[in-house]
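Handout, section B. The chain below has 657 residues.
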Amino acid sequence: MEKGSINVQTAPDVPNALNIGMTHRAAVQPLSVEQVHFEIDMCIGCDRCMRACPVPLSSQVSIAELNHATVSSEVASHVVRFTDECVMCGSCVSVCPVDNHRDLLMLSLKQRLGIPWDGQVDLAHVWGDLPEGWTVELLLQALREQPLFQDRQLVPDNYLLHFIATSQLRILTPGTELMREGEFGREIFFLLDGLCEVFSQGTDAADMPMAILRRGEYVGEQGMLTGQARNITARVQRIATVLVVPEQVMQRLIEIVPAVQDLFEQSGNARAVVTILSRLDLFQDLPQEELQQLAGQAALKRFDRSAQLFSEDQQNQPERESFHLLLDGFVKVARKTGRPQPPERIIAYRQRGDYFAGGLDMLGDRRAVTVTAITRVIVAEFSRAQLKSLLLRYPAFKERLQERVHLYQEAKVAANSAVFEPFDPAALQTSVANLVSEAEARAGLHALVDDGVVEGTEVLVIDLDKCIHCNECEDACERRHGHSRMNREGMVVGNISIVTACRQCQDPVCLLCSRAGIGRKPSGEVYITESCIGCGICAERCPYDNISIVPLGEEADEAVAPQTWQRFSRFFSKGAGKERGRRALPMAQSVLASGPLQLDQADALSEMRKKIAIKCDLCAGYGNQACVQACPTGAAFRTNPGSFFGSTEDILRSRTR
């Protein structure tokens, strides 16, 4: 047997085997044993797939070694590690001259090697970080008190040991904040000992106590599940021992034990319903017990992008008897035109905290509408009986519901006034003008919704009345970062051009990265970390094509001109010019050192990355934004789309004046 290799029992074809680490390609079907041998026989051993592979360790693995491991019971240790690090990006497939499915061959090898968490756990750094009085056995016992981990058959001790080894154990003093409302974060906090208070900002901007967390409870799941800003603040009340779990670690456990995800989401969604109801003016003054009971009775539904919540054509459907509350995400509200083009007219976009009753747009004209998810959406559905009970027992709730509907009705009237006035020549001219301007407003609204602008937290816009088309904004971006992360030409709405660049989405689907190669700062900037290998999964998932993959080094792509590499190399070096400055970007070092892949730091530094992802991160780490600072006329500026463009009613009202 080859030195440093391990024996692996070749398993029969198992079509239902877990596809661990493949959240982005969950529908992929593995090859049968016969297909595996056929693919290997077809391979000509050219090594193109290994040269195209973005995983740094691929430079130390030959295609011959990989082929041997795929059909043999002997697997070299470095091939085992490479197999674990493979992210199934598919870069190998497009370069194969014989059209081999190397990605599916890797999937077969991954499944045959099994789940990495079944193997031995390195607890060396855990022993050094244990607080006084704690042992590994006590940590396991404390974690078993969590509802998620009580079933030893589902979550064996070895899984929990890996869970501990890839997370961070912290002792926190009273007053320390685990998380702050309004900030972004994907970590989850498991309370092993002590007390934490949880509160949210109420409708009067005062802190509203919500709960006291004790040993055996956790907090922070909402940020991981939705990618949205934290909706509560958690603060240590009595000295606490907390296990801080990175998103990648929790996702790995959820992949291995899907039942954990069900418990996880049920608990998280119930809390989210109570939190959102507590913050809505509509439900103010309702007792906390009432809100908790209401949340417990709610049917929670999840919708992917472009999925339809309900349609105006669906008559006598259960949705018509329900009250729908948006917990997370954006939806577009449309009505069919009856014409081939355009088939629908977008009349509104709605977001977290908005609602529909009986499939009717209660915040608009109270008529049936078609509602479609713009982003991933979570909806709490309440029955007609539940809503009717609330209206009967809480007259103030009914008054607020009617008042809000009345306010939206006034906004709609203001936006569409004079269109149906009695005919006379002067009124006709006014009507025509208003109809034209409303059409323009509808077109602008359609663009903002369909192109996802409204789901961003910050967009770069250019006032075309001031822009002189000097391209200095793009040049400044390239001077600072070595490669431009923006395209000045973008969608135009009125006199505003929305630049093609990352919008720091509220629900960034690009953040799905098993290597923690892309992260988010608490203030909201989405950035590329030092763990990035340029696999392209984040770029593939971005709906707006705002992430690019750039090769590092001429050998990675002979088509890349030397001057391109020379320009991009400034990304890693100091330089001159007003765009240069102190760059203090957080780089997820702790995740690299102790994350789910267990990378050895020395090996990681010695391995050369081949590619890297680049995207706008709002010049995180600098004191200014290069594109905005360089604009000579002040035409370019950053803004929050919600506050800049306003609500649906604001857009229509401002454009039809």
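Note. Residues 336 and 342 are 9 Å apart (CA to CA). Compare this with the example in section A.
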